[in-house]
Structure formats: C-alpha cells, structure tokens
Amino acid sequence: MQIANQHAGDSIQTNRKPSFAILAPYFKSYLLPVLAAAYPSLFFYGNNVHNLLLTNLGRTIILYILIATIVYLAFIVKNRNSPQKAAIATLVFLVFFNLYGMLENLLLRLDWFTVYDFVILPVTLLVAGYVIWLITKLTEQASRQIWNFAAIVLGGLIFYNLVIIIPAEVYKQQQAKTINSEYMPPGSEIERELPDIYYIIFDEFSGLKPMRDYWNNPKANEFEKFLISKGFTVFQDPHGSSTNTLREIATRLNYQHFTWDDDPASQKDWFDSISKNRVMDYLKQQGYKVVTFNETQFAIPSATSIDSDVTYNYEDIPTTNLGVFFDEFGVFVANNTMMNVFSSYYTKLSTSKHADMVFFTTNKVGELSEIVSPKFVYIHLIIPHAPFMFDEKGNVNVPTAYNNYTYYLDNYNFSIYLATKMVTNILSNASPKTPPVIILQSDHGLRNSSSSFVGQLENFPDEYKTSILYALRLPGYEPSFSTQEMDPINTFPIVFNHLFNAGIPLK
Fold it and tell me: Does the pTM of the predicted model rise above 0.85?
C-alpha cells in the first residue's frame, strides 16, 4: 500500500509542469503588445530621425511599453486560459489608444460638430470594448492565426523603420564631437586687455519696426531707449536672409553665405558649420575662451554641441519630474493618442526644462568671473519662439497657449525683460577698464506658420518674417547705418575689424 502511494506520488510529481513551461505561452503572447507599443514611437522617430536623439526614442518607448504591459496583464486576468486572446485584445486597445488623437484632430478639421473629449473618448472606448468582446468569442485556432498575422505585420513595419533609423544613428555617432567643458581657473593665464564679447540670440524675436507698425507695442520704444542709454547702436530695420535658424546662425558665425538647402538632409552640414565656426576659431587664436549657453537642442535635440571651452546646454539642466518622458518628441507622440486628453498636464511638464534653461541663463550670463577673460560668450535661447509659455510678467501660460500665436506678444515682451536683465547683469559685473562688447540679435522674425499652430496673424507681411532685432554695443565704434552694416552677415567682420584691425571685407 505504501509502495502504491509512493508510485502515485511519483506520477503526480512527474506530470507537474515546470513554472517556466506554464508561463512560456504568456511571455510569447506578450510579444504582440510590445510590438504594438513600440511601433508608433519608432514610426514618428524614423520620420524625424535627423532632428532627434535616441534618448528621445528610448524614453517614449519605455512609457508606452509600460502602458501596454498594464493593459495586457488586465486582460490576462479575464482570459488567463487564452494569452493569445489577451494579447489581441491589448493590440485592439492600443490601436484605438494610438489613433485617438489623430481622430480628434480629423474631426476638428472637418468641423462637422463641436468636439468634446467627454463625448468622443467614451464613444471610442465603447467601440473598442465591443471589438474586444468579439475577440473573446474567437476560437483558439482563429486567435492563433490573428496573432501570427499581426505579429508578422508589426514586425515588418518595425524592421522597415529600423532600416531607416539605424544608418542615420550610425552616421550621427560617427559625426559626434568631443566637447571640452572644463573650466579654466582664474589666473591660469595672463589676462589680456581685450574686452569680453557677448553674442546673444533670441529665437524668432521680431524686429522693432514690425513691433511698432503691426503690433503697436509701446514696449518696443521702451526697449530701444534702454539699449541706447546703455551705449548700444540700435538698427531700425535689419533683416536676415531667411527664416531658417540654422542657415542664419551658420551664416553669421562664418560671415559667409552657404549654398546648402534648408531640408533635413543638409542639417549635418549646418550643424558642422556652427559647431566649428570661423568666429570662434578666430577668437581662440586671439586668446579668448569660448563659453556657450545653447538651447538649440530644445527645438532640435540632435543639434551638434558647439566646440567650446565651457558649455551650458539644454541637456545640462537636470530634470526633476516626469518631464523626462515628456520632452518635445514625447509630447508629439502623446498628442496622437488618448493621452491627448491630459495634454494640459504633460505639456507643462515638457516645458519645465525650457523654463529652467531660460532663467538659469539669464541669471548666470553676467556672473562668469570664474572663467578667465577675455571670453566670448554665445547665448542662444528659444524664446519668444514657441512654446509661448510666458506672459509678459514671466508667469506660465496654460498649455493650450503654447502653440497659439495670440500669446506671442506676451512671450515677446517677457523676452524684452530677459534681454534687459541680461544686459544689466553683464554691465554691472564688467571691468570699467575693458567694457564688454554686446551683440543682441534674433535669427528671424515671427514666421506665422500654419503648421501645428493656431491663431495665425492676419495680413502679416512676408517681409516681417525676416525682420530681426539687431543692437550692437561696440565701445569706440561710430556706426554709419549703411546697408552693409545692417546685414547680420557682416556683424563679426565689423567687430573684428574694429577690435583687431582684421581687415575682413564686408559682404
């Protein structure tokens, strides 16, 4: 009897499946939700690979795989004996989840009726729930066939996007440059009697003339009076050659025109010409240390860092909240999904780093005594460029204002405040023996774009789009206000000819 019981126990133990064998079907089925979660981010990244970094993609994919995992586990509870049905149900949910933002935008464009999230979202979830209920009625064989077909299709789509992404990433890595961001301790070199030079770019800052003529903005006159009182020459109607930021910065930092196109394929050329440019090379030869506060990476995360001695970039400002997942790319992807319902929350998170960089730069730029002079300080802030997140007092607007041109003027007036504070800080900490050179410019004026923006300005002249701010504080220089002098391509030849007798011909 004891022997029989022992054999029975052995039989039971032999038939018991290992834990891995039990879980294997669930892990295998889980592959489909992972593919479905990863594909939208890979698709959007592949279409913008030249403007983004892998960190943007990695953060976004992690977030959506987490969402897919939670949904899959919830369906496993309902369909624990059929992991393939749970996976297909998760796929269906993710399809509706990822297409919701596009559906809402389509309805807004069609303008058939007033679109409310509290109406559209429940209807979408109801349809998704009905389709998921139909899935529970499938046979195991049908579920297996659907799973296999969906996995093959998604796998093929992902492979296609990887074919686009991988070569571009390899190319970007090959072009990566080592940045020397070590501080030069005070007194490590003999200071020369040369002035510090500050080159401050405000992105999409309209020229003073359109501010007066189109917006009737009294702060334009106040700003001009302030600059004149601080020794600036203020040019009244200067224009850049285009509305392309990279073209404008490359042209001015190299004082030459380029023939490259403005399409994404030429961005590597633009980045290289900005990263290693004639202005900074020349100043290094004169004994200058180059310092950069460069927020270009806020608009173009893949922007190459400038070859400088001390670097303050957008990525150098630490993220302390969920904004790590909701950078500009994360917001773009989320806006196409059901998360669009919560855009007011995550959009605010995404721009907190931008605000940190703006305030940090404004306060720090006049306090660089730890860096030996002479120094060339390059500042490029993405303001008053969108997101139009500030009112004129610096308070943060509601996220719905960020892409609405109605709020540009307040953002502009706050930029005037920032410029005023920067100039005041620089001059208050400057040596009276060698007063600094300060160049205030914008890359271009308000572009009034119709893509992804609302509240476009009516009857806005095209020539205003290239109208720029240009104010020059160059002690001892007498301006002629000639056409050549107002062309920003000649900014540094004028400065170098005055300071160093460089003899650079003007364009």
Answer: no
